[in-house]
Recover the amino acids of this structure.
């Protein structure tokens, strides 16, 4: 059976049953009531307010949930652990549950991107690392799951968090064949032995742990053990899967997108290629054993996580997994073997000049066109921008961080980012939002630096200092942006890209504002996206990228939308408009749009 058939069969009734619409993560809906001819008439049908305190610059949180719609119930979750079931037609609350996540925990990405559903149960992986099972009809905890309805995922980690906020969970579990497969998010630039990034599977009925897979190999019998070099290498933390995990129930496979080892910008204590980190890893779901793996970045020094969820589709007649990376590349691999469907070439890249560091000499380049530029020449008509770039290493993508400072392009927010991609199986178009901003990254020797003179900033648009404890260096980073509004890198600062996977060419690119969040595609020929900083929800024509409709939002929809058919027969499109308390604004709204009755 082909991938589109599986995805459509799972949701033929117009529901949205998983974060990416289905277990495959397609983000494609067969609904077509809203189409290119009538989308301009879309209007607000209802709005629900979560009631949580709005985020601020000092207490940032992001409402990034993608709701589910199953059995005429719409399920949403919040950063502070609230789950609500709403009437999909009216937005009226059916039930609520509060997991009471500590509001002052200070997580780096204080968010929750949604819940999962299985067999009449709702599963919530809370930001503070608990896995909960609720009755889908009543919201009451399933007492037979774990301990009184909960599993503590902080227990049993190889590296325990050195502080509460170092370990969190932001993505919903993958569910297949009676198993919950869960990753984690780790503050990965603080120390080499950060919290470890084990992926774990739990029995969906009981919460019993079934298996654990560690992306940092722990035994010499593992064939990739030798790719981690140095006495401390196998104690490395992170390499975790903080994005959404895709599942192929028929093949008993889960596809795990892993991130960078800790710390992000210095790898002198974890020399080697660091296999399994920065990879797409196919695990046997029933056992947790590695079936195959492909590394998108060797020995990561740029924070080039596989932040995007993998997407499972049929490409060129083959079962495929499509993975995008912050490095602005798209990799398309055979789902069963990991063999590239579009060729991938190892190319030489610049060497490191940092004492103690050994950058890997080559990196894998996809033969598909880059999703975003891989080089910025530093030229700008603005003098302030020229001054910002002067004296920095600038040899294109994969130029390692340096003592004098390096221009990193794409930056750590992409290229492609956690917003991921959507796929139209009929047109064979992959739709990906990307950012095109460069960043400056500098390693400052720790010796002789007075730590109290460093101003640590969490602003995405200012200098950001991180003391990488246990290494000889402090990391300093900033985007090539001059407040209040000068973008130094060539315009546009971001783009919505359509990649044609029949021909392996870029079909179109539409300029957009910088963004974090994802798109969806519908059979009505539309792409919906609201992730841009300009606080606007848009619909685009999938054939050419032309904007057909937009609606102003009170805060940016820093999330991925979803769509469903309500009991009244109307197609609804829903977005979480919550911002982040800073660049993306602040709000607490879940907004549903539909055509007039």
């Amino acid at each position: 059976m082909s991938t589109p058939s599986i995805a459509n069969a799972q949701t033929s009734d117009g529901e949205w049953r998983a974060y990416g619409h289905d277990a495959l993560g397609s983000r494609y809906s067969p609904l077509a009531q809203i189409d290119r001819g009538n989308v301009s008439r879309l209007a607000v049908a209802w709005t629900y307010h979560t009631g949580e305190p709005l985020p601020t610059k000092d207490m940032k949180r992001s409402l990034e949930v993608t709701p589910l719609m199953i059995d005429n119930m719409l399920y949403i979750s919040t950063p502070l652990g609230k789950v609500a079931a709403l009437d999909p037609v009216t937005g009226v609350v059916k039930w609520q549950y509060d997991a009471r996540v500590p509001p002052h925990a200070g997580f780096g990405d204080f968010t929750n991107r949604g819940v999962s559903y299985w067999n009449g149960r709702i599963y919530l992986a809370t930001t503070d690392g608990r896995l909960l099972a609720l009755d889908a009809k009543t919201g009451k905890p399933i007492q037979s799951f774990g301990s009184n309805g909960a599993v503590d995922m902080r227990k049993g980690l190889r590296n325990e968090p050195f502080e509460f906020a170092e370990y969190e969970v932001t993505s919903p579990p993958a569910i297949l064949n009676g198993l919950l497969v869960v990753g984690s998010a780790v503050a990965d630039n603080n120390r080499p032995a950060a919290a470890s990034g084990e992926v774990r599977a739990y029995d969906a009925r009981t919460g019993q742990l079934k298996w654990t897979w560690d992306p940092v190999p722990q035994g010499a019998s593992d064939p990739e053990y030798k790719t981690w070099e140095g006495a401390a290498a196998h104690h490395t933390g992170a390499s975790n899967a903080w994005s959404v995990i895709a599942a192929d129930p028929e093949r008993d496979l889960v596809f795990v997108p892993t991130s960078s080892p800790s710390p992000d910008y210095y790898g002198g204590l974890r020399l080697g290629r660091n296999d399994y980190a920065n990879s797409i890893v196919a695990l046997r779901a029933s056992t947790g054993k590695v079936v195959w793996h492909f590394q998108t970045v060797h020995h990561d020094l740029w924070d080039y996580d596989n932040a995007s969820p993998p997407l499972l589709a049929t490409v060129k007649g083959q079962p495929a997994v499509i993975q995008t990376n912050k490095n602005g590349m798209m990799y398309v691999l055979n789902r069963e073997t990991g063999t590239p469907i579009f060729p991938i070439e190892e190319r030489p890249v610049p060497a490191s000049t940092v004492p103690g560091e050994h950058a890997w000499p080559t990196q894998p380049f996809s033969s598909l066109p880059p999703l975003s530029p891989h080089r910025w020449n530093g030229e700008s008509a603005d003098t302030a921008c020229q001054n910002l770039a002067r004296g920095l290493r600038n040899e294109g993508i994969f130029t390692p961080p340096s003592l004098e400072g390096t221009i990193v392009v794409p930056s750590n927010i992409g290229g492609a980012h956690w917003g991921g991609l959507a796929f139209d199986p009929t047109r064979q178009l992959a739709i990906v939002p990307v950012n095109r901003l460069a960043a400056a990254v500098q390693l400052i020797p720790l010796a002789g630096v007075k730590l109290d003179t460093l101003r640590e900033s969490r602003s995405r648009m200012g200098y950001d200092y991180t003391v990488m404890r246990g290494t000889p260096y402090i990391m300093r980073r900033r985007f090539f942006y001059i407040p209040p509004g000068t973008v130094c890198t060539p315009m546009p600062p971001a783009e919505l890209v359509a990649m044609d996977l029949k021909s392996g060419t870029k079909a179109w690119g539409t300029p957009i504002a910088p963004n974090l969040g994802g798109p969806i595609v519908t059979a009505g020929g539309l792409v919906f996206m609201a992730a841009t900083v300009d606080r606007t929800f848009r619909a685009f024509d999938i054939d050419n990228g032309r904007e057909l409709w937009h609606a102003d939002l009170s805060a940016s929809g820093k999330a991925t939308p979803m769509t469903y058919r309500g009991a009244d027969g109307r197609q609804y499109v829903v977005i979480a408009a919550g911002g982040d308390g800073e660049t993306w604004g602040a709000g607490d709204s879940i907004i549903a749009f539909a055509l007039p009755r």
Notes: Residues 4 and 426 are 9 Å apart (CA to CA). The chain is about 5% helix and 35% strand. The longest strand covers residues 571-582. The helical segments are 3-10, 383-389.
